[in-house]
Amino acid sequence: MSEFETIAEFEEYSDRRFAEDARMILECVRGQGAEAFETKYHEDRLFWRFQAIETGLSLAIAGLFGGLSLLLVTRLRP
Q: How far apart are CA 26 and CA 51, in angstroms?
C-alpha cells in the first residue's frame, strides 16, 4: 500500500483489479466452451443433517474395516 497516498486510491485500485480478474476468469471459462457455470452448496438448515449422515457413514465404514481386520488377525494367529 506504500505506492498509494490514500486508502481511497488503494480501494479504487483494488476494485479495478478485482473487476479485471473476474472478467479474465469469465473469458477463460467461456474460451473453454462453457456457456454458464453454477455453484452448488448445502443450505444452512441442512448442515446438521449432512453432518449426521457423514458421521454415520464414516463410523459404518470404520466399523466394517475394523471388524474385517479383527477377523483376519484372529484367523492368522497360530
A: 33
Q: Cell for 41?
A: 452448496
Q: How far apart are CA 32 and CA 9, in angstroms?
A: 35
CB-CB contact of 12 with 6 (8 Å):
no
> Rounded to two decimals, what is the model's pTM?
0.45
* Grid cell of 74 as nine digits: 484372529
Q: What is the pLDDT of residues 3-18, one digit of tens each?
A: 888 889 999 999 999 9
- Taking CB atoms within 8 Å and a gap of at least 24, the contacts of 51-59 are none
Residue 33 corresponds to which cell in the numbers above? 466452451
DSSP classification of residue 33: T
Domain ranges of the chain: 1-40, 42-78
In sequence order, the 6+-apart residues with CB closer than 8 A to the CB of 29 are: 37
